[in-house]
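Can't paste images in this forum, so I'm doing it all in text. The chain is below; anyone willing to post the predicted structure tokens underneath?
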Amino acid sequence: MNIHTVQFAHILDTSDLDNLRPFLSQTAFVISHKSESVEALLRVLWYIPTDSSIIIVTNCPEGEYPHFARELQTQLRYHKNTYFVHQKDEHIAHLFNMYNVNSILGADGKVVDGKGEGMYIGALCAHQLNYPRWLIFYDADNFVPSALLEYTMAMSRLFVSPPSTTHCRECQTPIVNTQVNAPTTFDLHNVRICWASKPELGTGDWKPGITGRTTQVVSPLLNSLREDLFGPDKHTISSSNAGEQGMTINTAISLRFSSGFSVETFQLLDLLFKANQYQRTNHKAMLYQYISQSPHFHEKKGDNHIKQMIEESLGGFFYFADELPDKTKQHLERIYQELDLELVCPVVYPALQTLGLQKNDLPMKKYALFTDELLQGEKPLTLGVKKKRLTREPLLTEKKKRLSRQLVSAEKKRRPGKQTVMLNDTNSQDLSLPPVLIGGEHSPAILPILMNIEDMPENPSALIGDTVFQENQPMLINSMLFQENEPEAFEQNGWD
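Text version of the structure:
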């Protein structure tokens, strides 16, 4: 097992640019999102390269998903390869059920809450894209996300070029100088970010070397295990709970995932034990721990939250109980006694490569924020999460006939920025609709539309639902055009 804790003498050299673009174009970023505001999420995404694929896995309230999608579509016009996936998506749940990963599903048949579950979905989506070689995980709760630029540059250098190191007197870690155009291949390759410090906003205390409260408990136990498995080493593990990390796609599908906050520690354990098996083979495993120069600001959690993270992280050790050395078991027992911890065993999910996944099991275009048509401004996108239909039921044939004969009048109270359209006699030839009805600048609120076939626009992309065409006869479109925040108009008017 190769473990290296590294810093850089500099973050960018012109020679690195040769490798940067190929790396970014073959990298997928998974952004874990839960309760952060859309503004906070957009600040994080602003620092993600536009050449890369971005997979946002959100566990926001399902009712807020459409709002987030609209905001992302508006603001991320240059991030063309962005996918927005809800953790509760029914298609993903169905896929897990089909491959017997039922432990990830709750009583409602949807994927349960948890960070590990969201990362598992992100890795699944990246695998289904078929082309990424590297996968990077970032959290959305980063108050100063400019640090992500440093993380991304560091991962590019550590994944693409093998390092040559010189001693760093001040930090007792190697300073890496990359060798251009000399890629090294490892069977398992993981890069984890170690923050320079974790200060609180407004305190001015940016003292380096301050580790997280969970890491202070969990990492020493991992170091004890590492020494028992591989012997003494000058590089200690300090990334047991690294939320920002990257790995090759082969590593992502080879490691198992686990539930909730246990996932970072559990995957590191899985990596160590797989590397231990590699000692009897020609396979190689590499763990880089990159010490960033940027401080990390995120929401500070209370003591109960930290205790929960520690309990879930340590619970992962019990899945390797038969392989744990006695020294590590004793160390683990002391921690439980000293901190008065409860045993919380996380749920473990199988490695993706063991599922027998097929190409396009999960059509990723379903979750794409931007299609070719949308980028050209031609039509809005229907995203993967099933939305509530505004139509209660399709119009029955008799009802269609009746409505086509009767006088139809729809009047909407005029509001600022919206149109009022009167549709009168069905035999009238003057039923052309203003361009605003077909995806113009100000779309109207919900309106049933009745128009002649000759008035049908060349590209009725804004029309949603089923249409009934009768040549040379009036045409009833069983659909609605609607504007944000006006679904209540449906109920108020009693429209079908």
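Confidence is low (pLDDT under 50) at residues 166-172, 177-182, 385-397, 407-496. The chain has two domains: 2-375, 397-493.
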